[in-house]
Amino acid sequence: MSLKNNKVVVIGLDGATWKILMPWIKQGKLPFFKKLIDTSLYGDLESTIPPLTAPAWVSFQTGVNPGKHGVFNFVEYNDQGEEDVVNSNSVKAPRIWEILEKHGKSCCIINMPVTYPPPKTKRSIIVSSFLTPPGKPYTSPLEIQKELEKLDYKIDILFEKYGFLVNNKNLEKIKSKLFNEILLITKGRIKAINYLMNKRDWDLFFVLFKETDLIQHIFWNNVETLRYYRFLDKYLQNIYKIFANKYGDKLNFFIISDHGFDSSAEIQFSIYPWLNKEGFIKYKQDFRFKIKILKLIYKIIKKSEIKLFCNVFFLNVRDKLLNKELTDKSLNLRRNKSIWVTNFGIYLNNKDNININYLIKKIKKLKFKGKSVFKSVYEKYDLYDGPYLNKLPDIIFTPNSEFILDPNFFSKKIFSYKKQYLMGNHLSDNRGIFVYKRNYMNINRQINKINLTDLVPIINYVLSISDLSYKYDGKVPKELKKYINE
Ligand SMILES: [Zn+2]
User: Fold this and answer.
1) Are 400 and 374 in contact (CB under 8 A)?
2) In angstroms, what is the span from residue 430 Cα to ligand 1's centroid?
3) Ligand 1 centre and the CA of 209: distance in Å?
């Protein structure tokens, strides 16, 4: 079959995992998914480490690793140590729509993370995703936004409105309300898809349902999640039919997710007290006492009317104390100190003080009640390469699914039990899903070892673009090539 005039449709389901989909598919609860995998190539899709939405989707967009595209987290830090949310300008590698446009192709990209401010395009449409500041323009070209607003399009439910990603007991009370709002967002997205897909014959059509990630965070594999997937299953069948009618045997249909998911872990591992116990950092003697007093004062004033002021005040005083009270063996990188711990890794600013290999060895060996705390621990050079490696922690790790990492400097206990109100989490699972279905294809085969960075080369291959000026980390897996060519 000729690859000429091929069309690509990619459906992104944020955080979708076979772990919950496969049992439901086998039980016949997701009929379209069942039909799809019965006649397609499917398997795991390897994500970035850490398996986080922002770096993962940017790796998808660029075909390269975070060391080359520069996005490792939702936030980044400038030279002064100030924190900012990542945006379009943080991405340092060419993205799929730039590459395709250069070859005369057109793309419709809906709800793609890290595309605010919306990049300029010639004949493509980009609709930005979450991390877009409220009230800011989110489409390219700009006129599209007005058209979408007429369809009640909303990017996301406002985090500010619920603060639900804050893991607290209030979540219980608003769960069913949240479910309905998330469903409404999806319905708006569907209206936008149905409208934009007919604007022209797109060479690449991409849409991300970010809501699957939210639903799984809140409900993990409960009935609500199934209800949501059943809704999506029906719609995906619909959209598949429409594209199949439109493009016939030129349709190349993908479903992918950016990372896996798991139930929330409740054993908290606090890294700073462990580093202290092992002698990698050292608290000054009276430090704990001062923090105690500060916390007490904070507790009293927290309930007062000037809460917001108090928060700022508390954080400022706390940080000053932190800076002052640590010996230089234990300082914080964001303020030019030597060790800075995050949920995904450890930055070592002053490597003379710490033997990194020894620290990695110690972390790898860490156990609690016979179970290893970490699934994988890497020195960044062993994992990634590229000019932006300096943005990445020196040690990058993934916890095992039973453990949740706590980077809070003020934690006391190394291991503690922490009740989680969000039922799902994905920091321990970097296996997303991959489905490739060429229209009229009739095979049922598993394919593995596909990485998110393979998608740009795969899409290029399907659209017969071979441009040697772009270098990717990913490649087109041989087995897949065979089926694309058939
Ligand atoms: Zn995600």
Assistant:
1) yes
2) 10
3) 10
- Measured in Å, residue 261 CA sits from the centre of ligand 1 at 9
pLDDT of residue 486: 73
Which residues are found with C-beta within 5 Å of the ion, ligand 1?
A: 14-15, 53, 213, 258
CA-CA distance, 339 to 349, in Å (whole number)?
6
The percentage of residues in the chain with a pLDDT greater than 70, rounded to a whole number, is 86
What is the 259 CA–ligand 1 centroid distance (Å)? 6
- 203-232 pLDDT, tens digit per residue, is 999 999 999 999 999 999 999 999 999 999
Cβ–Cβ < 8 Å for 61, 55: no
Question: Residue 415 — pLDDT band, cuts 50, 70, 90?
Answer: very high
